[in-house]
Write a sequence for this structure.
């Protein structure tokens, strides 16, 4: 499949080992809060210890797959966050079936240290390619890892990072629509 950037790895016509990797339901926790606010690209953060070892062992980089979200029934509450807006944990109460929020959705995500932000521990941050009306902190999500797009890079500007994530989104959408990948939606059903 024709990728455009020098650092992009060719993506095979269907997943190759160690993919696919499929997770159980994981908690959606609050990250540093930069995704939406600074980048305009909301991310769902997953505690790394909840994903299979095969996923934790992957090299730092940008990956794609499918995901499905599930609300849990728990009282909403607000948690303070250092230096950022408080986080409303609503456990997915406002997810909207008529908006397709519960369908299997394409996802592009980074596993790594976010060199641009100088993080010191490994994180998994998923950008779900779907337009949600509300946040859903505290809901659960299971996802598959079907392939690798590129290494994590350090950027000199936020705009360059945003630009590359937008390209990642286009690549993931294209691959996930191809016949070697669409049947794997069932893995997260
Ligand atoms: C598809 C995707 C690709 C990313 N690529 C990079 C990258 O190459 N370098 C980097 O420093 N961070 C990368 N990130 C991480 C973003 O910097 C991160 O999502 C953002 O800081 C928001 O994090 P927060 O919600 O924890 O604040 C990527 C994130 C996603 C979803």
């Amino acid at each position: 499949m024709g990728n455009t950037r020098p650092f992009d790895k060719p993506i095979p016509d269907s997943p190759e080992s160690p993919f696919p990797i499929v997770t159980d339901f994981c908690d959606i926790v609050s990250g540093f809060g930069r995704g939406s606010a600074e980048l305009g690209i909301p991310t769902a953060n997953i505690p790394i210890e909840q994903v299979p070892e095969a996923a934790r062992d992957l090299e730092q980089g940008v990956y794609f797959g499918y995901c499905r979200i599930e609300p849990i029934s728990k009282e909403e509450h607000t948690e303070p966050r250092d230096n950022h807006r408080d986080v409303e944990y609503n456990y997915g109460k406002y997810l909207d079936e008529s908006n397709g929020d519960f369908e299997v959705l394409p996802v592009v995500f980074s596993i790594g240290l976010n060199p641009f932000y100088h993080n010191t521990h490994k994180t998994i941050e998923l950008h779900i390619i779907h337009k949600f009306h509300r946040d859903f902190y505290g809901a659960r999500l299971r996802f598959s890892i079907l392939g690798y797009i590129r290494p994590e890079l350090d950027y000199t500007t936020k705009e360059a990072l945003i630009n590359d994530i937008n390209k990642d989104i286009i690549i993931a959408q294209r691959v996930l629509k191809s016949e070697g990948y669409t049947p794997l939606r069932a893995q997260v059903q």
Remarks:
- The chain has a mean pLDDT of 92.
- Residues 31-35, 39, 43, 45, 62, 108-110, 114-117, 125, 127, 152-153, 161, 165, 168 surround flavin mononucleotide (CB under 6 Å).
